[in-house]
Amino acid sequence: MLKDLSQHIESLIFTAESPIGMEEIRDCLEESFGLQFHPDELDRTLEEIKEKYQQEVYPFEIVEIAGGYQFLTKGAYHHTVGIYLKQTTKKRLSRSALETLSIIAYKQPVSKSELEKIRGVNCDYAIQKLLEKELVSITGRSDGPGRALLYGTSPKFMDYFGLKSLDDLPKPKDFKEPENQIGEQASIEEDYQTTSSGEEE
């Protein structure tokens, strides 16, 4: 086994802006060293790394998320980190965007007309913002008249909300618990306004 293999894997996970998959890790290592690495060898090494960061001395750990691996802060430090993020985050999702995103997450694939039927207002602006933030993507077209575009959540959505899969979404019965809400509601100044025609600004 390559000396310091674990350190090289750690450096890749630490450097990656989003969860990095094992295949990508292997490709980087093989190109870097001109060697072939057996998947079992990399899996064992990664498990050793994960076990290492379970020690209390480390405030972060390696977590499998969105089909890859990423360094994340341990739960004991979430409150402190959360305060920092609140202080530094300038742009949050508006209420309209959160509502639209929630419907897409649970109803996907879903068309704009279906979204507007559920929300009761025009969703053009909210969908545009979610597409710009790459939290949703166009997944195809419906089979109905007009072949409307269908929307679904993106890999970035999984990363953004710390989900391994859509199965990790809060169940409808859990919605009464504030801590299970998706995202953070924006302030009144950032929230949407509804015109007399029912279109969001």
UniProtKB/TrEMBL annotation:
It comes from the Bacteria. The keyword Nucleotide-binding does not apply. GO terms for biological process: cell division; chromosome separation. Keywords: Cell cycle, Cell division, Chromosome partition, Cytoplasm. InterPro entries: ScpB_csome_segregation, WH-like_DNA-bd_sf, WH_DNA-bd_sf. Residues 169-179 have a biased composition (Basic and acidic residues). It holds the Pfam family SMC_ScpB. Residues 169-201 are annotated as: Disordered. Residues 187-201 have a biased composition (Acidic residues). This is SMC-Scp complex subunit ScpB.
